[in-house]
Amino acid sequence: MSSLAAINIVDPVQLVVGWALFAVVLLTEGFALVHSIAQRAEAYTAAGKLTKPSWVGINLAAILVTVVLGLPTVSILGLIAIIASLVYLVDVRPALREVSEGGSSSW
Prior knowledge:
It holds the Pfam family DUF2516. InterPro entries: DUF2516. By secondary structure, the protein is an all-alpha fold. It has a domain at about 40-100. Helix content is about 80%, strand content about 0%. It has helices spanning about 1-5, 10-40, 40-45, 50-70, 75-100.
């Protein structure tokens, strides 16, 4: 029984899952930031969304919060950061694409 008690598989698995989650969140926020920078400023106004500097700032702040605080599930600020980037990706990005391409909103 003592040899089985010494084996702890939960901690390494938890560590790997945590780092994987951190990487996915950081890549998602990074993609949102790069996409927000690459779009024309007029497209944001035409789509009826916040301005380009606002979205770039929001996405940059999301990355900074994630890097400083770590995993997004650790704090309410981390959750707000990933949610802000996800809002950009699921709401603003399709609207910008529709404005830029004239009606085609496929990913």
